[in-house]
Amino acid sequence: MRSKDILWPTDFSTTASHALQYAVEMANFYKVGLRILHVVDQPIADASYQLLIVTPEELAKSMEEAAADSMRKLLARLDTELRVETVIRRGDPVQVIVDEAESADVGMIVLASHGRSGLAHFLNTNVSEEIANRAHCPVLVVK
Predict the structure, then answer these.
(1) Dihedral through CA 58, CA 59, CA 60, CA 65, nearest 10?
(2) Secondary structure (H, E, C), 28-57
(3) Predicted structure pTM score
(4) What are 49-92's pLDDT values in tens digits?
(5) Over the chain, what is the mean pLDDT?
(6) Residue spans per domain, the chain
(7) 3-state class of 85 per DSSP?
(8) How far is it, in rounded angstroms, from Cα 81 to Cα 55?
């Protein structure tokens, strides 16, 4: 872990930005790089509704372009000497993050918790909890 990059998955939320501080601190401490990952969910359309004016592929492409723009803005604000790589992938966030951690051979995943509790926690899939359970590397979940 001490010689491998830190993976920071982000949805560009305020909570995710808070976790970035921890990811940068860990990367600086271990003198490793930072890999920033954003996952674009694959849009699902039902032909019977015909609400989409664009195809799911066009919508996904637009979402990827918006993510790339957000990534550029984030990098412009990031004040660090670290080696930083950015990746935008498409698919199920949990699966993509776990796969990215394995394929990039990262030493740790640092991600944000959405902080749900009680009934909201029970009714909503907890992405960070599922990643922590499925990942083969250490996972730091930041509140």
Answers:
(1) 90
(2) HHHCCCEEEEEEECCCCCCCCCCCCCCCHH
(3) 0.84
(4) 555 577 778 888 899 999 999 999 999 998 889 999 999 999 99
(5) 86
(6) 6-142
(7) strand
(8) 41
Residues 6+ apart with CB under 8 A from 135: 97, 98, 101, 109
Cβ atoms of 77 and 24 within 8 Å: the answer is no
- Per-residue pLDDT at 43: 66
Burial of 103 (0-12, 13-18, 19+ CB in 10 A): exposed
| CATH T-level fold of 6-142 | Rossmann fold (3.40.50)
Tokens found for residue 52: 């989409």
Q: CA 8, CA 120: separation in Å to the nearest integer?
A: 25
124 secondary structure, DSSP code: S
Q: Say if CB 105 and CB 97 are below 8 A apart.
A: no
**Distance separating alpha carbons of residues 115 and 45, to the nearest angstrom:** 30
**CB-CB contact of 75 with 67 (8 Å):** no
Residue 85 is predicted with a pLDDT of 96
Per-residue pLDDT band at 123 (split at 50, 70, 90):
very low
